[in-house]
Amino acid sequence: MPVEEKNKVIYISHPSGSTAEVALYGATVTSWKVAGIERLFVSKEAIRDGSKAIRGGIPLVFPIFGTKENIQLPQHGFARNSYWEFVGVIHDNNEEVSVRFTLKDTQLESKLRNGWPYSFRLTYTVTLGEKSINTVLGLKNEDEDTFEFNTLLHTYFNAPNIADVTVDGLKSLNFIDKVANGIKELETRDQVTIHSEVDRIYCNVPNHLQVNFGKDYSISIEKTGLKDTVVWNPWIEKSKAMGDFDNEEYHNMICVEVGSVADWVKLGGGESWTGGQTLCVL
Ligand code: BG6
After folding, report:
1. Contact at 8 Å (CB) between 98 and 175?
2. 55 marked as binding residue
3. Per-residue pLDDT averaged across 149-163, rounded?
4. Residue 80 is assigned to a ligand binding site
5. What is the DSSP string of 54-111?
6. Atom 5 (ligand 1): residue with closest C-alpha?
7. 107 annotated ligand-binding residue
């Protein structure tokens, strides 16, 4: 069977041998293997019992990024902290296997629903190919009035060694440096490298990016409908401050997170929005 459900996790296999796993908690993609190699990072300290967002994989940030003074929601919103419904297999052929999840306001715990009191339906479609995974978020505003939101596909990549990691495609872009009190800067490097804590929102990013993992392999990122890209590595002190992250794991991960977070996205009553990414091992 190309798709199986066990203990609230959906296991997907492609005829080529590539596999993916999606936890119903957060609809979090927690594994993506191509040629037997795990391409996503999940902390060995990650909590998987549904009491905290899973530290790794592709958590979904929605409807806020970080925290907002006037919105009573946990950091990064509720999508990664809620159980989604598995809609089923959308298609399954030799090219790709596609599954879908949904989250409606009525599925939220009341505290979360009160924090963002709008009617909405999120759909999340995960499509596994031989060397690729495509993750697309759809949103329908089921209210009459406009609401605004932020969202991010908070992808944690497995990095054999962070010292060898480079990110292409960010040159000449403005970024907000969250490590330097939100100061705005211009990226001048062809390739972004990580040698200390990095927490940056690159704004208005072209749709093609590439993350290189030394000589081992690269992963291309094609995004659609999402303007920005966050690059994050907690480095030493922040790693120590996170209870669900091993102190040494910052050597082995990088987050390159496509989303729309620098500005609110407005969605009119009855309207739909979609945004997503395709990751492909090169
Ligand atoms: C990133 C943010 O997207 O997520 C960082 O830019 C944040 O500021 C990181 O630290 C992890 O957030 P959390 O809530 O999963 O610890």
Report:
1. no
2. yes
3. 98
4. yes
5. -SBSBPEEBS-SS-BTTB---TTBSGGGSBPEEEEEEEESSS-EEEEEEEEGGGS-HH
6. 199
7. no
Residue range 74-95: average pLDDT? 96
User: What residues does each domain of the chain span?
Assistant: 3-281
pTM of the model: 0.98
Distance 158 CA to ligand 1 centre (A): 17
Taking 80 as the threshold, does the pLDDT of residue 23 lie above it? Answer: yes
Ramachandran bin of 55, using left for φ above 0, alpha for ψ from -120 to 50, beta for the remaining angles: beta
* Ligand 1 atom nearest 242 alpha carbon: 16
Query: What are the counts of helices (DSSP H) followed by strands (DSSP E) for the chain?
Result: 2, 22
How far apart CA 118 and CA 66 sit, in angstroms, is: 19
Task: Give the pair of three-digit tokens for residue 197.
Answer: 């804590």
Pocket of ligand 1 (CB under 6 A): 53, 75-76, 154, 178, 199, 230, 232, 257
Count of residues for the chain? 282
Q: Is residue 257 annotated as a catalytic residue, yes or no?
A: yes
Specify the fold of 3-281. Beta-galactosidase; Chain A, domain 5 (2.70.98)
pLDDT tens string 166-218: 999 999 999 999 999 999 999 999 999 999 999 999 999 999 999 999 998 99
